[in-house]
Amino acid sequence: MKHQPVVEELQRLGVEHKQAESIVNDLSGFDAHSLLSELLVRGLWSLVVDETNLSQLPVIGGDAVLRLLNKGIDPDDLMDVIREAQVDTIYNVAQLIDGPTSETHFEEVPELPKNTTHTCQSHNSQVPHA
């Protein structure tokens, strides 16, 4: 199977086998949405602060965090607030990926055909449209 290396690479990143196969199936139809969504959300999660590493606090918020700590704010509480804000942001981004018109109140989204290609004029080659 020619797509097995892609499935294996996705599994190495933590994607379950069934989901990896679904992504590869989409890619074979020139639809990269599921792959891009998966990689974006995984990338965002990798940026969430480690709640056990309080030494990150001054780096995360700079002078504002230092002022809060100097006023006696509990570092664990501050880390919880920062982490919760990050997680909420990821949740909202994921919701927009799944339903981009829900918050914009865009009434009608045109259905784009799958398997469309665009010609690169400078190279005269076909490029799949994701």
Order of helices and strands: HHHHHEE
Annotation, overall tally of beta strands? 2
**Strand-residue proportion:** 5-15%
Low-confidence stretches: 116-130
Shape: flat
Enumerate how many helices there are, as a single number: 5
Q: Please state the CA-atom Rg, rounded to the nearest Å.
A: 21 Å
**Spatial strand sequence of the major β-sheet:** 1-2
| Through-space gap between termini | 23 Å
Tally the structural domains.
2
Profile the largest sheet. Answer: 2 strands, antiparallel
Q: How would you classify the quaternary structure?
A: single chain
Helix content class: 55-70%
The overall pLDDT average reads 81
Based on secondary structure, the structural category is mainly alpha
How does this model look, in words?
With 130 residues, the chain is mainly alpha-helical. The protein has 2 domains: 47 residues; 60 residues, no CATH class. Helix content is 56%, strand content 6%. A two-stranded antiparallel ribbon has the order 1-2. The longest helix has 24 residues. The two termini are 23 Å apart.
